[in-house]
Amino acid sequence: MEQLISYIAPAAPATRRPATGEEPPFRVEIGFTPNWYRRKIGIDFGQKWHNNPKYRKDTVLAMRKELNARFPGYNIGIMSNKPDLLTGVYGACTIAAIYGIPIIYSKDNWPNCAHRPLRDYEVKALIAPDLDRNHFFQNLIKQLDWIQKDQGTIIGFINWQGVLNNAHRLRGEQIFIDMFANPDLVLHLMSCVCTTMIEAAKRLHQRQKMSNVEYHFFTVSNCLVNLISPEQYRDFVMPFDKKISQVFDSLGIHNCAWNANPYIEYYASIPNVGYIDMGIKSDLIKAKKFFINARRAIMYTPMDFDSKFISQVKEDMIRIALSFAPCDIVVADIDEGTPDEKIIQFIDIVKEINSKIIEGKLLY
């Protein structure tokens, strides 16, 4: 099992990437919304950005240049010397789009899915699509061909989401009623979605391997988990999280910034967990004991970051370091209006705490 760390490519939603083993004990990952980049340098994040890798390359290079100018030496959003031309494509909509849900694009935001929930009979008749004949997936593969021809290698990641997130995009809010009124329908829908997530990720990995890039992990995004009870997670979602964990060498669990306390023990029963994140209100000491071998992370919300004085942010960081390190601190979705100076102060605070940990002056 390999550990995973947080990763936010320019204008992409937060995701994960393999750890190198040389990560600092207290590490920060910063990310900005598409609107932030649009306001700064005028990028259009509409359909062309997601479908045209040449245009996307130009914008990625422009975003990296802007980040370096504003935050010199901090390497925000940089995974490799080569530009990452894959991460962020289609936002969180890829699986839904494979199932035929239209994508709604935006000039200044991540894409969204059209709200066209499947009806009962449509869910009952649902089968996992044949990816070899799926128009949307094959168009994605064509982009990979272009990226390899241009860059030599295909680095980066697609955000496959989690079974509940994807099932909700297909079924809508009715899925929460289904858990009480029609559990078999929920399990059938999630089984189809899970199959597609696994098969699509495996095919992506195989295609990347042809360019001498190897990935062996998967991240499940449980952004909606706090809308269901721990028992519903156990009965409806966890079996598929476990199934995914048995296919890939390492599993990342994205719990968003929610309080993970009700789900920690269930998460701990899943094998091969190489990463887990949660909100600051979680029992961090307990979580550390349950996930001693995984890279842990705190999703520090942009609301907290914006609303708190920098001295309060520093107090939060010290508390997290004392109870949860080694870990990542993830501040994603920073939008227009957050001062660059505060971001620099924050990164420097994390670096200062990290130095104290290394020197033994801050014991965790």
CATH architecture: Alpha-Beta Barrel
Compressed to H and E, one letter per element, the order equals EEEHHHHEEHHHHHEHEHEHEHHEH
Q: Helix tally?
A: 15
- Total strands: 10
Biggest β-sheet: strands ordered side by side in the sheet = 3-10-9-8-7-6
The oligomeric state is single chain
Q: Percent helix among the residues?
A: 40-55%
- CATH fold-level assignment: TIM Barrel
Would you mind describing this structure in some detail?
The protein has 364 residues and is an alpha/beta fold. It has a single domain, classed as TIM Barrel (Alpha-Beta Barrel), CATH 3.20.20. The chain is 48% helix and 13% strand. The protein has 15 helices and ten strands. It has a six-stranded parallel beta sheet. The chain has a two-stranded antiparallel ribbon with strand order 1-2. Strand 8, helix 12 (284-290) and strand 9 (295-299) form a beta-alpha-beta unit. It is globular, with a radius of gyration of 20 Å. The model has no long low-confidence stretch (mean pLDDT 97).
Strand-helix topology:
Blueprint: E1 4-7, E2 15-18, E3 26-32, H1 34-41, H2 47-51, H3 53-70, H4 94-98, E4 103-104, E5 112-113, H5 120-124, H6 135-151, H7 163-171, H8 174-181, H9 183-209, E6 217-221, H10 230-247, E7 250-254, H11 264-268, E8 273-278, H12 284-290, E9 295-299, H13 302-307, H14 310-324, E10 327-334, H15 340-359
Parallel strand pairs: 3-10, 6-7, 7-8, 8-9, 9-10
Antiparallel strand pairs: 1-2, 4-5
